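agent: user wants the structure for Peptidase M14 domain-containing protein from Amphiprion ocellaris. delegating to structure tool.
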Amino acid sequence: DSSYSFVVWFVMFISCVDLWQPNSASLIHQNATVDVHVNRNDTQGLHSRLKQERIDYRVFISNLQKEIEKQTGYRSSRKRRSEAQYDYEVYHSLEEIQSWMFETNQTHPDLVDMFSVGKSYEGRPLYVLQLGKRSRPQKKAVWIDCGVHAREWIGPAFCQWFVKEAISSYQYDSVMTRLLDQLNFYVMPVFNVDGYRFSWTTDRFWRKTRSKNHKFHCRGVDANRNWKVKWCDEGASSHPCDDTYCGPYPESEPEVKAVAKFLRKHKKRIKAYISIHAYAQMLLYPYSYKYATIPNFSCVESAAQNAVTALYSAYGVRYRYGPASTTLYVSSGSSIDWAYRNGIPYAFAFELRDTGYFGFLLPESLINPTCTETMRAVKAIASGLLKKCETDRDRFPYI
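agent: tool returned. relaying tokens verbatim.
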């Protein structure tokens, strides 16, 4: 039976390609678009098979290696010397980002405080920048993390952009001034430091952490499937070689454990949790692990709507928004579900540009517009925290 043989071939094919979207073969269904990265040697066989099965396909990037080299190769245009000359429109290595963090901390002591929440599996410090005017000790706070998945380079680029914009527009932009006066922002430019470094040195499309597994040669855990909320259920894999591997137990990854510990300690003050990912052009909120409506749905939904409208106002880029389970796919052990279940009322995950043309290789020429529009969305979410959302304030304490 030809359809049966195709299914067998497709399963074998999926096991030897790099799935970009969706990130797991179990999420592929009829009439869905699938983005894959294929080795040069396998392309001819794939072309002929897809033609034979009458499956529509398009080649977006024909020479991936060339595109990678454009982003990692040394260029004289890279301004590395000082923060004043730092180029926010190129991707930066982990070492460059950490030097930039030290320098930002030193040059803006009135607005910035740098600290570490722990160490990664390979022993690297997990640095966070606290932004805000030191007016009163118990200010509400917003947590923003980037670079949970190593290959999503636009994430760390956005976190740096956010810090630059916040500092440079303080006292000039009335919205930013009010936000930094009344809120603290905890910004973690690179959550998965080991994986991010590995994506620069060895494998540009690495996703997971770099922890070792005793039984398998495969390394790493999906840091967005390792949180202690419906851990290792639907949408996560228990196999160490899979990209969505949930880990041997919840918070097995020192990076996840360190951030969870910090958020638990400060959860009374932290009112919003924002995680920056790529790609899909979406703004997602809980739940990820089930099809159900969160208790404070109307407050969160209107915050998402305002954010997406603000984002659209920059360049007319459309983002879909909604619960992660129905808008993207079901996944368990995610950070937004964990943050929400631990009492942080606004928990969002952004999936930045694009929708698949460049995928994880978003060109550096798109860093500026992507960060500019996302900045508007994040400012809209943060501004909303300063207003009371009345609709279901009475119901919320019972989550």
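agent: one observation worth passing along. The chain has two domains: 2-59, 83-398.
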